[in-house]
Design a protein that fits this description.
InterPro entries: Acyl_CoA_acyltransferase. The chain has 55 residues and is an alpha+beta fold. It has one helix and three strands. The chain is elongated and about 40 Å long.
Length: 55
């Protein structure tokens, strides 16, 4: 394994904070990428950690 990749709703600050605390670096987002339970769309934020990243 060379990379861990994760995503979260951009409005979900707690999930994004956990990803940062785990060492993942946010690298981008998609508009209207996540469908919520109520059917609305929200943006998705993406983060990754490479095996070569400093820790």
């Amino acid at each position: 394994m060379t990379r861990v990749h994760a995503g979260a709703d951009t409005d979900n600050d707690a999930s994004r904070a956990i990803l940062r605390a785990a060492g993942l670096r946010e690298w981008g987002h998609d508009r209207q990428a996540w469908r919520r339970a109520d059917g609305s769309l929200s943006d998705g934020s993406y983060a990754e950690l490479l095996v070569t990243d400093p820790r």
